[in-house]
Design goal:
Blueprint (H helix, E strand, L loop, with lengths): L3 H6 L3 H14 L3 H8 L6 E5 L5 H10 L4 E6 L2 H9 L6 E5 L12 E7 L8 H10 L1 E12 L9 H10 L19 H10 L6 E11 L1 H4 L2 H6 L7 H13 L8 E12 L5
Parallel strand pairs: 1-2, 1-4, 2-3, 4-5
Antiparallel strand pairs: 5-7, 6-7
Helix pairs in contact: 7-11
This protein binds S-adenosylmethionine.
């Protein structure tokens, strides 16, 4: 089956249990996404990689009782988390692989995604599939990360990539899946190959106020691939960088650099 790795990763029990503590960190990206999508009452919407349904629920408020929103996720555990939360009747959550499976509830006026487009094994096939479920005048909007190097919130990944990592063959490697859509030219190539127009891109540097432990810990550094033998040095370097954006009350004004793509099917 396609995307088995992601299915397994996002069904991991511990990851899903921890997910509600991660959502407050990334929810700042929902407004720029929904602004770009310009949702109107009565629209049909599909939220790809809906996770716990944060963007799905905000979309539902905008389309109202005459509209509908389908949240699609490859992870059964994420769909269960979303469905366990209060949601209006116009919202439906479906377990499906957006790359390969038919999407119920279309054709959609808008397909949206909050950090859910970057994980496809075959992005062109995925966009072809999404295009099949888009209304002729509909549009696709997704928020994705800008490169890891500009994203202070991914401190552990940045330091690992900078050379603190000691990745052994067959050992831990730096997780880069989240940044697979950082290169806008590459994404535009996927879109055009799948029958979409090149995207319009809106870049945002968002700020999330956090405690330092929410941004980086020795544990997250090790998880990102940094050898335990050098983790103290890496942690010290991380704190030094974060000091520049930490206020007198110890709150880190942590930048989250994201980009929102907007596109539609190319006219033949
Ligand atoms: C980084 S999470 C984002 C979740 C949520 N939108 C949020 O921002 O909180 C990515 C989500 O995409 C889902 N996903 C990954 N590959 C997918 C696929 N092929 N089809 C549908 N969902 C997928 C994952 O299960 C996961 O819930």
């Amino acid at each position: 089956m396609a995307n088995d790795g992601q299915r397994e990763y996002f069904n991991d029990e511990k990851r899903v249990q921890r997910w509600p503590t991660r959502e407050p960190f990334t929810k700042v990206a929902i407004s720029p996404l929904l602004d770009a999508a310009s949702l109107q009452p009565g629209m049909t919407v599909c939220d790809i990689g809906c996770g716990g349904g944060m963007a799905t629920l905000q979309a539902a408020e905008l389309v109202g009782q005459t509209g509908s929103v389908v949240g699609v996720d490859i992870s059964r555990a994420m769909v269960a988390l979303a469905a366990s939360r209060p949601h209006p009747d116009i919202v439906q959550y479906v377990e499906a692989d957006a790359q390969t499976d038919p999407l119920v509830g279309g054709p959609f006026d808008r397909i949206i995604s909050q950090f859910g487009l970057m994980f496809f094994e075959d992005p062109v096939a995925a966009f072809v599939n999404l295009g099949k479920h888009l209304a002729p005048e509909g549009s696709l909007h997704g928020v994705v990360w800008q490169p890891m190097e500009t994203n202070l919130s991914f401190m552990a990944h940045r330091l690992a990539a900078r050379g603190f990592a000691r990745v052994t063959p067959g050992g831990r490697t730096v997780e880069v899946g989240a940044f697979a859509f950082a290169n806008r030219d590459v994404v535009d190539e996927y879109l055009v190959a799948a029958g979409f127009e090149r995207a319009t891109w809106n870049l945002h540097s968002l700020i999330r106020l956090s405690h330092v432990d929410e941004v980086v810990t020795r544990e997250t550094l090790v998880l990102a691939g940094i050898d335990e033998a050098v983790v103290d040095d890496a942690y010290a370097e991380a704190l030094l960088e974060l000091a520049a954006v930490t206020d007198a009350n110890g709150r880190v004004h942590c930048p989250l650099d994201v980009q929102v793509l907007s596109t539609r099917l190319a006219k033949l």
